[in-house]
Amino acid sequence: MNTEKRIRDQEQFFKAVLSLKNVEETVDFFEDLCSMKELEAFIQRFVVAERLLQGETYETIQLETNARTSLIFRVKKSLERENSCLRKVLERLGEEEVHH
């Protein structure tokens, strides 16, 4: 697949995600596209990121999420990037929780 086509396809996919109206629609959308194992893998990475930001140790995260050390390390590196969108999203969610 050429680069232009791939970029258009990615844009279309992310526009579709942004068009979802609520959590229920989002769950249904991803259940239509992903296997339960794929969804669980995404959710595990997300939970690992949350726990890393909370200052939990690799050992605790590994025991409680069943994540491999290499995955925890990779997620940690992602959070440390200067413009980490994962960090930005988690911080927004944290701010949302404080206001509710």
UniProtKB/TrEMBL annotation:
<dbReference type="GO" id="GO:0003700">
    <property type="term" value="F:DNA-binding transcription factor activity"/>
</dbReference>
<dbReference type="InterPro" id="IPR000831">
    <property type="entry name" value="Trp_repress"/>
</dbReference>
<dbReference type="Pfam" id="PF01371">
    <property type="entry name" value="Trp_repressor"/>
</dbReference>
<dbReference type="InterPro" id="IPR013368">
    <property type="entry name" value="YecD_YerC"/>
</dbReference>
<dbReference type="GO" id="GO:0043565">
    <property type="term" value="F:sequence-specific DNA binding"/>
</dbReference>
<protein>
    <submittedName>
        <fullName>Trp operon repressor family</fullName>
    </submittedName>
</protein>
<dbReference type="InterPro" id="IPR038116">
    <property type="entry name" value="TrpR-like_sf"/>
</dbReference>
<dbReference type="InterPro" id="IPR010921">
    <property type="entry name" value="Trp_repressor/repl_initiator"/>
</dbReference>
